[in-house]
Amino acid sequence: MRIGTAKETYFADEALFDTRTQRVWLFVLAALLAVFPFVASQYWLYLACLVAINVIAATGLNILTGYTGLVSLGQAAFMGVGAYTVAVLERRWGTPFLLNLLAGGAVAMVVGMVFGVPSLRVKGLYLAIATIAASFILHFIFANWTAVSGGTAGLTVPPANLLGLALDSEFRSYWLIVPIAALMVLGAANLFRTRIGRAFIAIRDRDISAEVLGIPLLRYKLLSFGIASFYAGVAGGLWAYFFRSVTPESFPLIMSIFFLACIIVGGMGTTLGSILGAAFMTLVPEGLKLAFGWLPNAEAMAVHLAPVRTMVFGALIVGFLIFEPHGLAEMWRRTRRFFHLWPFRT
Amino acid sequence: MIDWLLFLEVSLAGLGGGGLYALAGLAFVLIYKATRVVNLAIGEMLMIGAYFFFAAATDLGWPIGLAIVAALVASGLTGGLIERLLIRPMLGESPISVFMITVGLSSILVGLVELVWGADQLRLPEFMPTSPVLIGEAMVAPKIFYGFLVAAALIASVLILFRYWRGGVALRATASDRAAAYAMGIDVPRVFSLTWVLAAAVAAVAGIVVGSISSLSPTMGIFGLSVLVVVIVGGLDSVLGALVGGLLVGLVEAWTGTYLGGEYKMLATFTLLVLVLMIRPYGLFGTHEIERL
Fold first, then answer.
1. pLDDT tens figures, A291-328
2. A120: DSSP letter
3. Higher pLDDT, A170 or B88
4. How confident is the model over B150-172, as a mean pLDDT?
5. Are B281 and A126 within 8 A, CB to CB?
6. Residue B263 in contact with residue B224, Cβ under 8 Å?
7. Nearest chain B Cα to A208, which residue?
8. Hey, of B107, B108, B287, which one would you mutate to test binding to chain A, going by the most A CBs within 10 A of its CB?
9. Are A267 and A137 in contact (CB under 8 A)?
């Protein structure tokens, strides 16, 4: 709670961005995002798009895991469902990309809800393992339903088409991906100001009490799976448009673990956490690559890059869980709190 | 007409593979029973054991027997280290956080192995007899046969250890009621360490056998996913469940691998998992936990 923000109405209290400072910074951030593609190199644009896609998927997973308390290791597989849906629609019928993305999200949502059914009988870790099963079963379908998915060779995807303009470069994809990501993050943040979102949080904190309070567990758990998978599906659709090819190997189990790592590192149950976590975890491997380039005998050390990345990935998960369980979002909050009264109190 | 001899051979091979699943499942159940940790890194613990054996036998050139002992000791130490550094600080945290720790651990172990030994496949030295074994008319690959024997012997000795050894009794006491175990003067934290050491050593044996049947590579941890299915099917906290589940999953994998094709193996295993979760979420022999408020 900060000083000087007395609220006089409930409306003001419930507002998503409650202080003027926050709104100003948000505006600055939006402006920076809008200027970014004009100054950044192609490599940085590529990274920005990748981060934005991962932010969407991580936000979805955070709704399921961070807010509803259902651990899922199937997020990447549901992303695959969205990607394949978009690829098939775009190739066969060439429907508008917004429709494709929505369809990708919707199909992923249905599939996610089907695999969410075990969540009614099993909880916690059992559920996590059930979703591993989902990810293997979906991988099998991607690889063997050749008529639709193109088998192990996968599908190539034509670029998205906006009013006759093919979104085929990083610069153009940026304008597709980043606004959608922003919109979806905003949607997630708003979700927790509604009955549905509060029901999710109640289920996470104690599902039996939630049921006593009149929250139908069946419906809300499935809904949470559905929303998370919808986010995954849209992210997968954007992924398909961005990389322009989809194969069964594009969405391995390790990618689901990656998203889980994103929300752990970022902070479970905070919207900011999904953003920070996804950005951080996407950029760390690139940072490592950069750091390896600076080493004295860079060429000889290059073979060690992949294992070091794997180790750092694991170490980040473990380190954050042990030392900062609330993640980057908490560190961010702490930093902000420090500057509230700075320099009058340190 | 079904070829019964082929069916028998496939089934025997399945049981042989299942023995290894049972062994790895035992390592998993040990940890779960005593510390309530769902260890997703079980496959990687197998892997690290096999690599220790490789290091001792090939890199250092020690005789096989000594190398096996060295691998077991090194794995046990690693297990203890993991418990002390990663699991102990998480005592009392939510099971999901601890689970995620083991997920991170598996990445660390894979990276470590790749860093030291490289990502390529390696071959373990041959140490098992190579003449095929005949059971009735059916022929069984020697490695699978002897692997099964090793697994069976080890499982039996662990069970005996549990039954009669003081440490085993302490472990069972801790598993059934932690607070009561404390009250009886059992050093519970030491039991935790002991369990991890023991489980890591058991996993190392399984890893050495699995590694010598196929080959050694950092992706060996995928074996751990099948082990996860084994323990879910059998019930997370049931030793008997791990044994039965292991044999069952081994059989299912062998049958689908032969009659449907290799790509159906994982599908069959995980479909089995989903079915069990839907029908009997606590597994065949697991304790049905009643939630009290």
1. 888 877 777 777 788 888 999 999 999 999 999 889 99
2. G
3. B88
4. 88
5. yes
6. no
7. B293
8. B107
9. no
